Amino acid sequence: MASIFTKIINGDIPSYKIAESDDYYAFLDINPLAKGHTLVIPKKETDYIFDIEDEEYKGLFAFAKKVGIAVEKVIPCKRIGITVIGLEVPHAHVHIIPINSIYDMDFKQPKLKFSNEEFTETAFSIKSEFQKL
Ligand code: AMP
User: Fold this and answer.
1) Is a pLDDT exceeding 90 seen at residue 23?
2) Helix (H, G, I), strand (E, B), or coil: what is residue 52?
3) Are 80 and 95 in contact (CB under 8 A)?
4) CATH number for the domain harbouring residue 102
């Protein structure tokens, strides 16, 4: 069965899309640790990130880098934190998180709530910066 992220790529489930290429897709995390928290995924569905072959793996991180640079142009932060967890959704993904301290990467922190309008506006701003890169 297709993963929830494959359904997002195929447009069967909505997402706040940031960017897309032939091989990768980026969208806002709906339970974010920070405003601008973004997920970057390969379109080819693989559960565990270390099962991705090297070229696709390198491409995923190169795409995530570009997404992270776009995020930091929009969200004021000290750095972009980047992490892989993958305990919840069995489709490899990279978390891109604006951070000001190490605690901002703590997934035990309560998740933030944003309205549809706020998510849409954040995605639009990041997408616009991504398109300039
Ligand atoms: P993990 O697999 O542990 O890295 O966590 C999966 C992440 O995917 C969590 O941060 C969720 O909030 C996020 N997530 C799950 N479903 C969706 C969705 N439909 N749209 C955006 N983000 C999602």
Assistant:
1) yes
2) coil
3) no
4) 3.30.428.10
What confidence tens digit (pLDDT) does each residue in 40-91 have?
999 999 999 999 999 999 999 999 999 999 999 999 999 999 999 999 999 9
Ligand 1, closest atom to CA 37?
10
Tell me which DSSP letter residue 110 carries.
P
pLDDT at 1 over 90: no
The answer to whether 93 is a known catalytic residue is yes
Overall number of domains in the chain: 1
What is the pTM (predicted TM-score) of this model?
0.98
Ligand 1 centroid–CA 41 distance in Å is 11
C-alpha 83/C-alpha 95 separation (Å) is: 5
Residue nearest to atom 4 of ligand 1 (CA): 86
For 58, the domain range is: 4-11+22-132
